[in-house]
Amino acid sequence: MSPPTSTPKTQTMGKQDEFSTAIAEDLAEWASHLFPDLAGDLKGDNFFDQISDGILLCQYATQLHQRMTESRSGSKESSKRRLQGVRVASARAFLPIEPPKYHSREFGPRSRAGAPFWVRENIASFLKWCRSVGFPDSILFETEDLVSRKNLRSVTVCLLEVARLSGKFGVEVPEIVHLEKQIDAELAAERRGVSKREGVVKPSTPKNNSPVADVSSLDEVVSYAYT
Questions:
Q1: Is residue 213 part of a domain?
Q2: pTM over 0.85
Q3: Which of 83, 97, 98, 119 would you label with 185, given CA atoms 20 to 30 Å apart?
Q4: What is the CATH number of the domain that holds 152?
Q5: Quick one: pLDDT at residue 182?
Q6: Tell me, what's the pLDDT at 198?
Q7: In a domain, 7, yes or no
């Protein structure tokens, strides 16, 4: 019997697993530092299991919402609550009317037979808040992606973009986001050097202002950081 060959679908799933696994440890360390009491024994190998009840996600969004609210104190912006000079994935960012509402773990036990309704409500509340900020659907994940762990890459991409946004309001960001900024600065310096040699000044666009749905660039950062 000939050995099984990998199909494009299995290769894609393998890349998704590698991508998510590589970043999960960094995200776990970051979340543990932000929420030591809530995170508990959060580690890279249990990161997605631990956040799958949506509580940590909603707590993080609540903290970020508070920072965003403080940044607008005294602002004369319109009732649309636009965040001046802030963008998410090249789209304008807005301050939602309220932070996400969510259930605590005391609300009810988690069943091994399936996620209880309050878990799905928590995740849905987090995603609703993200949409209110202005995140496009291409950046967001579906509730089932996290509940069933079936598309962790989408979950990872979304969390990284939320982390980038939080960095603009003074919230600590994961190490990989710092690394992205470092790489962006190096590339921008190289472009400026080439432009000067050519006698042409070309404006550079930071990667953090481009849609992070371009996962190939994320793969490059992950490869750079973890190899």
A1: no
A2: no
A3: 83
A4: 1.10.418.10
A5: 80
A6: 61
A7: no
Residue 147 near residue 52, CB atoms below 8 Å? yes
What's the burial of 173, exposed, middle or buried (CB within 10 Å: 0-12/13-18/19+)? buried
Q: 199 falls in which pLDDT band (50, 70, 90)?
A: low
Query: In the numeric block, which tokens belong to residue 46?
Result: 């249990």
CA angle centred on 50, ends 221 and 43, rounded to 5°: 55
Phi-psi region of 225 (alpha: psi -120 to 50; beta: other; left: phi over 0): alpha
How far, in Å, CA of 182 to CA of 185, rounded?
A: 5
Residue 197 counted as domain residue:
no
Instruction: Indicate the number of domains in the chain.
Output: 1
What is the band of 221 on the pLDDT scale with cuts at 50, 70, 90?
low
In a domain, 53, yes or no: yes
Q: How far apart are CA 10 and CA 29, in angstroms?
A: 29
* Boundaries of domain holding 152: 19-71+80-181
| Per-residue pLDDT reduced to its tens digit, 78-137 | 545 889 889 998 889 999 999 999 998 765 555 444 568 899 999 999 999 999 999 999
Tokens coding 205: 């666009």
